[in-house]
Specification:
Distance between the termini: 55 Å
Radius of gyration: 20 Å
Oligomer: single chain
Structural class: alpha+beta
Shape: globular
Helix content: 25-40%
Strand order of the largest sheet: 1-5-4-6-3-2
Number of helices: 12
Number of strands: 12
Strand content: 15-25%
Order of helices and strands: EHHEEHHEHEEEHHHEHEHHEHEE
């Protein structure tokens, strides 16, 4: 069974979900979708021996993904940004699409289904705001072998919650029931968001110069990337999702709760920062961490110097690194390490932002050398 859920005819379209927002006519949905790409390297000693767990050890070959993107780029030049821009009058429609990866496996194991929809929305809307776009609407895809209506309702409630946090509407979606395709009780999720920004207001990083300041906004934890490696570390540690998170300063939180913390949706905070001026570039820190995501918004010849110790790294990352024996360079290229969004601003803008927003940190500066360096 495959059923489409588009908010056009109120009867059938809302059979599984109810929009909690007043509906408005949708914009045309043509958009060029740019694919995210990261590179990844296996950490080795001088003799070539692997040291500690890596993302590739966990089954994720980012080099193969990068090669696929390179081939796609030959067929569709211009891909590679966080969102795809489509000209529409005096504005651009900005589109982004994503899923939540193997974080779903932990949702199945913990039984926490009411926040995974927040993660789904976050991964798309956080991408499109990097261009300065305000999210307009979101659509989802929910697939399972046998539809459990109560479970699906929990997931959809999370999606609606995410849309509310993003100040956009859940326009509709697709429910696909495919017998024998998924294990019992499991499902898959994906979705996409569309936003809009005036052409003269697009944030594209072109005006970034050496000496500009790097502002970081804190994450809630792992967010929705790197969970194949997370699950490998968990298995190696001998601990369970119900055990207390080690090194959490005696605060009562289980490993499962820490790992399932929903991805922060930065829409309102970032758009407010943009409205005050001085924001030149924005990077969503997902798979690839600082090392691969920040350079994507720089003009040629520029790089970043990150001030280590300028923000508090959440305990969950310290545990992952210690339990998995993961090298620092691998951590920085797999996880967000406690910073989920990065803004490049002028020196003049820095103080205003830091004084206006309690949860914003000066974490680095732009330099005249390509790459990301840590000091």
């Amino acid at each position: 069974m495959i059923s489409s859920r588009l908010i056009q005819t109120p009867s059938l379209a809302l059979s599984l979900r109810q929009s909690l927002h007043a509906q408005s006519p949708p914009l045309p949905a043509s958009a060029l979708q740019r694919r995210r790409t990261t590179s990844h390297a296996v950490s080795c000693s001088a003799s070539g021996e692997k040291k500690g767990l890596t993302y590739k050890d966990a089954g994720v070959d980012i080099d193969a993904g990068s090669e696929l993107v390179r081939r796609i780029a030959k067929m569709a030049p211009g891909i590679g940004g966080f969102g795809g821009l489509f000209p529409f009058g005096d504005s651009y429609l900005v589109a982004g699409t994503d899923g939540v990866g193997t974080k779903l496996k932990l949702a199945f194991e913990t039984g926490i289904h009411d926040t995974i929809g927040i993660d789904l929305v976050a991964m798309s809307v956080n991408d499109i705001i990097t261009s300065g776009a305000k999210p307009l609407f979101f659509l989802d895809y929910f697939a399972t072998s046998n539809l459990d209506v109560d479970l699906a309702e929990k997931v959809i409630k999370g999606i609606v919650n995410g849309c509310q946090q993003s100040d956009c509407i859940l326009l509709g979606g697709e429910t696909a029931e495919m017998p024998d395709f998924y294990a019992k009780g499991e499902y898959d999720l994906s979705g996409f968001a569309v936003g809009a920004v005036k052409k003269e207001a697009v944030i594209d990083g072109k005006n970034i110069v050496a000496g500009d300041v790097i502002i970081g906004l804190p994450s809630s934890g792992v967010h929705s990337n790197g969970f194949s490696l997370v699950r490998r570390v968990l298995a190696k540690s001998g601990l369970s999702l119900n055990d207390q998170l080690p090194g959490n300063n005696s605060k009562p939180v289980t490993i499962g709760e820490a790992l399932m913390a929903p991805t922060i949706i930065y829409v309102k905070q970032v758009l407010d920062m943009i409205s005050k001026g001085g924001v030149k570039g924005i990077a969503h820190i997902t798979g690839g961490g600082f090392t691969d995501n920040i350079p994507r918004i720089f003009p040629d010849g520029l790089g970043a110097r990150i001030f280590t110790g300028s923000w508090d790294v959440p305990p969950v990352f310290n545990w992952l690194q210690q339990a998995g024996g993961i090298e620092e360079s691998e951590m920085r290229r797999t996880f967000n390490m406690g910073i989920g969004m990065v803004l490049i601003v002028s020196k003049e803008t820095k103080n205003r932002i830091l004084e206006s927003y309690e949860k914003a940190y000066c974490i680095g500066e732009v330099i005249n050398e390509e790459g990301v360096y840590y000091s």
